[in-house]
Amino acid sequence: AWARNHHKAFQTKEDFEKEVVRHVETTLARSMFNCDESAAYSATGLAFRDRLVTRWNQTQQRQTFIDSKRVYYLSLEFLMGRALDNAMLNANLKDVAKAGLDDLGFRIEDIIEQENDAALGNGGLGRLAACFLDSLATLNYPAWGYGLRYRYGIFKQEIIDGYQVEVPDYWLDFNPWEFPRHDVTVDIQFFGHVHKMTDKNGKPFCHWEAGETVQAVAYDMPIPGYDTPSTNNLRLWSSKAASGEFDFQKFNSGDYESSVGDQQRAETISAVLYPNDNLERGKELRLKQQYFWVAASLYDIVRRFKKSKRTWKEFPDLVAIQLNDTHPTLAIVELQRILVDLERLSWDEAWDIVTSTFGYTNHTVLPEALEKWPVTLMQNLLPRHLQIIYDINLFFLQAVEKRFPQDRDLLSRVSIIEESQPKMVRMAFLAVVGSHKVNGVAELHSDLIKTTIFKDFVEIYGPDKFTNVTNAITPRRWLHQANPRLSDLIASKLGGYDFLKDLTQLSQLELSLNDKAFRKEWAEIKYANKVRLAKYIKATTDVSVNPTALFDVQVKRIHEYKRQQLNIFGVIHRYLTLKAMSPEERKKQQPRVSIFGGKAAPGYWMAKHIIHLVNNVGSVVNKDEDIGDLLKVIFLEDYNVSKAEMIIPASDLSEHISTAGTEASGTSNMKFVLNGGLIIGTCDGANIEITREIGENNIFLFGNLAEDVEDLRHAHTYGSHTLDPELLAVFSEIQKGTFGAPHDFEALISAVRDHGDYYLVSDDFHSYIETQALVDESYRNQEDWVTKTITSVARMGFFSSDRCINEYAEEIWNIEPLQVGSEF
Ligand code: 26Q
């Protein structure tokens, strides 16, 4: 009854207002007379959080009572963005809140804007985890996310004089969405020694006497599903000093400073998200983060399992653990350690349980992104784990040798230990050996891993261990929330919002292709979204852009393989072409706004040079009176999830132009198409499957294919390498100083000209320019363009993360949905 009353309290705007007022006056201890937008946000968040909590508890109780199999998604990154808008929409109460806030004198958009993004991730991998949590809850799967509660999320980016400057993202000062669980703690050990012991039955076992203990404290975030009471849990661990005797001794003996030092050292573990995307850096603190999080999560999972009173053999019947990249690979070793050292199972029994429990998702084939840790570092930090890794490797290599006798080369190729100087632990190999399924994230990528990095493992295990689950996105955030008018228009055609839970229903939109009123409204929505972005551009960069121009957008992490340099070289080429034209000729050209956004890893110099060049090109082009509206170049500062929600719906064309074979999937490509934008892209990652779904007439593909990349690179290095003449013209313009001191951009040029053009910028340049000309031509025919965008949206059903999660559930996790009672 209590739950019911509580729920009812949120059906009307009057009751909602009462709750807001109550929270302002009691929870926040403020008066409604000086309730500013920040307080209104806090109170609104708390009101929605209250109604989430009931469903959250019910969901958890039901899962525990039924003893259903749960999936645990281990990810060092959850790029959640804002929670309030999502909570309102998933509960179908945004209209109620809007009316209520209006009564109280606030605009709902302003209130939503108050929230800090939860930016606990770098890019694609972290946002994928967030989309998966949304689908898991919406589809009623019993699922938990486990991650780290970073005090600082991904840095905020400022652009000063054209350069990126990093500012810390302290996001936690008021966060109504998290619940500290000071009673849910785990002591995590590091360093120390391993002792061989014998138990009372005379059996030998290992005892790890650790040298440092840090405490993990759980913080929980409710994850609401869309149009369902199911509310899952995201558990993030925060580190603090363990309250051991050691500290007290120091404290009492007057060593106050060093006791505070211990405190700070402990808190450092969860202090900051590493800002590298697709680059591995072997820092000890990163390894400490990984083990801290993995050990706390596994302790928690095992503790929950033990309450079920099942035998260990049944562990994989109740628990599936998915590893988001190799970052949590130590979980494999930790579970083996728990089972063998602490629970005293035999090695083989334990290993059976371990491998049946884990699945591993690979997100990259880039060699520089494959995680490796020095054996010496591992030995020092986690001595017992290193022993177990050596044993896992020994048994694995013995099995390989049995099947492939006398192939010493194979053994050294697949060994988990790389016999280099210094020796390294290859985390991806450990993840493959310790999991029952390995998946890539798009078809091309899943094929590539089978023929490159994991080729030998396909020989050893057979092909069935390797599978594909093509990435996808949640249509709730990336259509309904980001583009409400488009969602409403689609709903009006499809007879309601069911398509948000079954995205294949979008196909019915093709029936409306010739509906004039519908097409008009479709085009108007795009235009309105562009007007909004134009206003934002004016407010943040002081550049006026014409919303009727073609908006060409590339927003993603800055990386050489993603080839923002190709884009900006293309922009310079366009500029030079326009400059060379007569005024009459210019009048016939298609106006364009080239919009860039994205963060560079702080230590990634090449990426920072790209940002600098984009900004410098912008400051020259944007004030060139010959050019006017024909070309504007914009760099949007601090690209993040909430900005993506504004930018993506405003794009006519977006760029997904990675060197073929380098972008595992990409997921923003799907977001752009779902919002009625077209793509210019290479035959890479999910672009290929997007093309398969929407049809090749609706996408602008260009460039060399993945299968040709190796030969081209070889030719650059060993054959004759002639650069594209139009690209050379771009280079000479840069070198003339047109865009600032040429020295600043020499590295970008010489990467192409002198260092083998690893990313094939020159090889693809002509094809890129030609295809951009085709885009201009297509855009001129607005009717055809609108037809292409409607057709594309209609065919995007495949890219809902609900489809993706169902595939994981069936093929990897073997779990079933669990409907929470509809009594509330
Ligand atoms: C590793 C070791 C040490 C420090 C940092 C890292 C690290 C951190 C983040 C390595 C990689 C990442 C992120 C990778 C990533 O975002 N990959 C992207 O994953 C998406 C979801 O599958 C794909 O769509 C993209 O193609 C892929 O680049």
UniProtKB/TrEMBL annotation:
Cofactor annotation: pyridoxal 5'-phosphate
Reaction(s) the record says it catalyses: [(1->4)-alpha-D-glucosyl](n) + phosphate = [(1->4)-alpha-D-glucosyl](n-1) + alpha-D-glucose 1-phosphate
Summary of the function given for this chain in its UniProt record: Allosteric enzyme that catalyzes the rate-limiting step in glycogen catabolism, the phosphorolytic cleavage of glycogen to produce glucose-1-phosphate, and plays a central role in maintaining cellular and organismal glucose homeostasis.
GO molecular-function term, one example from the UniProt record: glycogen phosphorylase activity
Any single Pfam family the record assigns to this protein: Phosphorylase
Gene3D superfamilies in the record: Glycogen Phosphorylase B
UniProt cross-references to PANTHER family, sorted A to Z: GLYCOGEN PHOSPHORYLASE, GLYCOGEN PHOSPHORYLASE, LIVER FORM
Single Gene Ontology BP annotation: glycogen catabolic process
Keywords: Allosteric enzyme, Carbohydrate metabolism, Glycosyltransferase, Pyridoxal phosphate, Transferase
Protein name: Alpha-1,4 glucan phosphorylase
Family of the protein in this entry: Belongs to the glycogen phosphorylase family.
N6-(pyridoxal phosphate)lysine modifications at: 671
Source superkingdom: Eukaryota
Enzyme Commission number: 2.4.1.1
Organism from which the protein derives: Sodiomyces alkalinus (strain CBS 110278 / VKM F-3762 / F11) (Alkaliphilic filamentous fungus)
Source species taxonomy: Eukaryota, Fungi, Dikarya, Ascomycota, Pezizomycotina
GO CC terms: cytoplasm
